[in-house]
Amino acid sequence: MSQADSIALLAQRLQALSEDGIKVNPATANPAPLGLYGFALTTALLQGQKSGLTEPNTGQLAMGFGFFFGGLAQFCAGLLEYQRRNTFGTVAFCCYGAFWMSLAIYQTLVAAQVFAPVPVEGDRLMLTLWGILTFLLWLCTFHTNLVTSWLFLSLALLFWFLAGGVGSGDERTTLTKFAGGWGFMVAAVAFYDGTAALMKDVYGKQILPVFPLKPVNKVSLGDFGTKRFVDPEVGEAAKA
């Protein structure tokens, strides 16, 4: 296919979307799969320690990934979402990328005996606050899809489960192990969401269902990294 044919085909697709009352913003690659994969893999690694599935020092391996894959790569995905005029993606990926880098540098400084280990109440407060932040982000997912919305709600619950498990005692140990298992589920949802977005971009159609939610105030984010402004009146006028 020649370049002229490709441009003509793209123009036809944009025209078809326009006739349906849809404006698609970006003309760049979708960074959402990168951000979701970075978050999912690093989260799953850390939950291996929390759940007791792996050795206690697995957390050190997770912190290594927290610097670069869960941290830097995810933060870069957020910056790339900025180019796509996706405020939600920018905030979400930059927040969690910064979270992993912050956690990794702190754990490194503690291991180097530069910082003292975090107090129990401080650790619990930190996790509780991240749960609150994630819950607030969840309130902004009602125009996305069911998978993405559940990802943020389940992640908020994970932070609160982990906060409840901080400290000593059999009940807190049990809650931490439960949180570790819950965290594997959260990571699986993120892997699924990222793969669904990647396969759609690669193959040109939705392969894995994500169950899009209805637009809110004529704005849809059916794909994590693609923002659409939907105006039903334009679509009806074009059809008439």
TrEMBL record:
Places the protein is found: Membrane
Where is it mainly found?
A: membrane
Q: Which InterPro entries match?
A: Gpr1/Fun34/SatP-like (IPR000791), GPR1_FUN34_YAAH (IPR047622), SatP (IPR047623)
| Top-level taxon of the source organism | Eukaryota
**Topology relative to the membrane, per the entry?**
Multi-pass membrane protein
GO biological process entries: succinate transmembrane transport
Transmembrane regions = 61-80, 87-105, 125-142, 149-167, 179-199
Cited PROSITE patterns: GPR1_FUN34_YAAH
Any one cellular component term from GO for this entry?
Answer: plasma membrane
> What keywords does the record list, in alphabetical order?
Membrane, Transmembrane, Transmembrane helix
Query: What would be an example GO MF term here?
Result: acetate:proton symporter activity
Q: What NCBIfam families does the database record attribute to this sequence?
A: AceTr_1
To which protein family does this belong? Belongs to the acetate uptake transporter (AceTr) (TC 2.A.96) family.
Q: What is this protein called?
A: GPR1/FUN34/yaaH family protein
